[in-house]
Each structure stands twice: as C-alpha cells, then as structure tokens.
Amino acid sequence: MKKQRATLLSTPQAWISLEIILLFFLEIVYAIIFWRYESAKDQATMEAVIATARNVSVCILPTIVGIVGMFEIGGEIMIRFTRLMQDAIAQGIAQGIAQGKAEVYRAWHADWEKRRQAAAEKGVPFDEPPPPKPEDITED
Questions:
Q1: Does residue 3 contact residue 12 with C-beta atoms inside 8 Å?
Q2: Which of 13, 52, 95, 98 has the highest count of CB atoms within 10 angstroms of its CB?
Q3: pTM exceeds cut of 0.70
Q4: Residues near 9 by beta carbon (within 8 Å), at least 6 away in sequence
Q5: How far apart, in whole angstroms, are the C-alpha atoms of residue 140 and residue 137?
C-alpha cells in the first residue's frame, strides 16, 4: 500500500505535522531567547514585545525553508538509500539462490557421475537419468 503524500513539495503527510510541530517549537524557543535578550535591556515592556515580535516574524520564513528543505532533502536521501539497499539485498538473494542451485547441481552431478562410473566398471547397465540443470529446477 502506497503512503499518501501531501501536495506541498510531494512531502509525506506524516512529515507535514512533524514539520509544523518543529517549526512551532523552534519559533517558541527563538522568541524566548530573544525576549530574554530584549528584556535585559533598559526599555519598556511594550518595546521588548514589539522588538521580539519583529524578530520572530523575520525568522519564520527562513525557518520554514530550512525545516522543509531538511525534511525534503534528508528524506529524499533516505528514501533513495533505502531503495538502493533493497535492490542490493534482492540482487544478493537472487545471486545466492543461483549459487546455491549451482553448488547443489555440481554435488548432485558429481555423485551421479561416480555412480555411473562405478556401474560402468562393474559392467552393470546404468539407466538413471542425469540430474536436472539448475535452470530446470523449480522452487517449492
């Protein structure tokens, strides 16, 4: 089942809420830090509120761009890396199955060959068919 994606920069919907929470948290922290800085100055409370609101409003857009960029770029890197790893794992599994079949075939064929040679040395007719090649073997 494919996860639903929001229209904003093709972001997964679960990330949108996380981005909003992170934005809210960072803005609150920034406002508290700046409020403490402004309050430490000798000025009226209203001037500190206005200065804090001005600075917080200025930093909202860069914070949004940073958060969304971090999630989009970081998320895209993780998604691509995961796909590469899944492809490598699938390729490794297929290669391992092929190697396993080849090893079983070689062992099976060597045993068959020994029985055929032993029968030929004794002069006994040997009518056992050769083992099937790995391409002919079906998985159960």
A1: yes
A2: 52
A3: no
A4: 68, 72
A5: 9
Closest CA to 35 of 25, 46, 23: 46
Three-state SS for 121?
helix
Phi-psi region of 12 (alpha: psi -120 to 50; beta: other; left: phi over 0): beta
DSSP string, 2-30: PPPB-SGGG-BHHHHHHHHHHHHHHHHHH
In the structure encoding, which two tokens stand for residue 13, read together? 């919907």
Four-CA torsion 104, 108, 114, 119, nearest 10 degrees = 180
What average pLDDT values come out for the chain (140 residues) when binned by 10 residues? 56 75 87 83 79 85 84 82 94 92 89 91 87 67
- Looking at the DSSP bridge assignments, the partners of residue 12 are 5
Query: CA-to-CA distance for 47 and 35, rounded, in angstroms?
Result: 11
Q: What are phi and psi of 133, to 5 degrees?
A: -70, 160
